[in-house]
Amino acid sequence: MPALPDLDDRIADAYLYAFAVQDLARTRWNATRDAANPGRFDANTLSHARRLLGPRDRWITMPNNDTLYTIAWLDLSAGPVRFAYPAMHARYFSFAFLDPWTDNAALVSRRTHGGAARTLWLAPPGWTGEPPAGDAPLRMAANDVWMLGRVLVDGEADVPSVHALQDAMRLEAPGTPRPWTTVPDERDPQAFLALANESLGRNPVPASDAALLERCAPVGLVPGDADAWSRLDDATRDAWTRLMPELRKRLRPGDPARRSSVGPHWYSGLDHIGRFGEDHAYRAMIALLGLGALPREEAIYATCAQDLDGHRLDGANAYRLTVPADLPVGSFWSLSMYRMEPDGRGFFVENPIDRWTIGDRTPGIVREADGALVVRLQHAAPADARGRANWLPAPDGRFVLNWRLYEPGEGLLSRRYALPGVARA
Predict the structure, then answer these.
(1) Contact 150/93 with Cβ under 8 angstroms?
(2) Residue 149 is inside which H or E element, if any?
(3) Is the dihedral of CA 53, 313, 392, 270 positive or negative?
(4) Tens digit of pLDDT for each residue in 129-177?
(5) pTM (two decimals)
(6) Would you list the DSSP string of 57-117?
(7) Strand 373-378 to strand 391-393: parallel, antiparallel, or no bridges (unpaired)?
(8) Contact 86, 169 (CB under 8 A)
(9) How far is CA 289 from CA 62, 66, 113, 253, 303, in A?
């Protein structure tokens, strides 16, 4: 069989489409099946993070240090699942329900539904029954759903209060979750295709993806066929092996148009972050850089890697970021410091004061007379007491900042409000 004339282009299309699918399935496998993970838990059960995340936590890229996570990997194929959570009152919380493509298929939060207790009824595709009286129905278009819950923690002293809220959550699921068979290896094309195909075969594929999947079938992207690799010819297999390292590099946000400016060298998600539609390249990029991202109306994630002069941020230098008092957020904001790994993922780095995030709730921060906060970004501790109070330690090399703004105001959503730039001190 002769090689396809557009073989490389088809493989590129297949890779961009499949990356987020296999990345979420890989994360699911690591959480529920990996024998090397002492914290693994079964599907259709709740797993509560009992401490704020730090440098040891590398299961999710660019983690936050503001909330405790509650996670469930749901399999709805046996019937509806019920999830109940207690009253949160004024405390920020959100429960995002992501489909296998990493879209936020549903979102329940303080912003959307207030702080009262609720019971959610999640039904699988095509389910015609009605929920129990009082339950809020969420009809899903996929069987496999990732529930990613966030509950705000107001400092270490507040952790027990959030534990009590987590302990009051309940999940009821019928039947036994279906097993997964593919062992992930995202750098091996055979395992990459097998895991993506297995995930796609477990769930109804959107009709809008049919033409793309038809185009990609000859290069091995076939929903439900975990052994498609074995039927590819040598030329196609060789092309996958040759192309995958370069395709991985393309996922990084080199094009500013894919990042959308919200201030000097601050880039946030495009308007469709978290609900990607047919923009599979952007979906793949976010899966790599911030898996599980919320839609912009819930939270804006702004990333900065350069100072006001356009130079890369580096711990060899000292910087200041002046946060104005009128930052338009309805809940809270935080600024996190990450060292970027060679594969493009970012993680916290150890530092002498165990501070990886600073924000409007950080104890001991010192504001200016007008309410502004001057954050000090540097590797060594500032010499003055005010600087040390507002210090966010940097690693000894290049770093990236991520600004999280929860329940952003209209100025941020419309991009008319510009975030301040990072100035070299």
Answers:
(1) yes
(2) strand 144-152
(3) negative
(4) 999 999 999 999 999 999 999 999 998 899 999 999 999 999 999 999 9
(5) 0.91
(6) --SSSS--SSEEEEEEEEE-TTS-EEEEE---TTS-EEEEEE-TTS-EEEEEEHHHH-SS-
(7) parallel
(8) yes
(9) 7, 18, 29, 9, 10
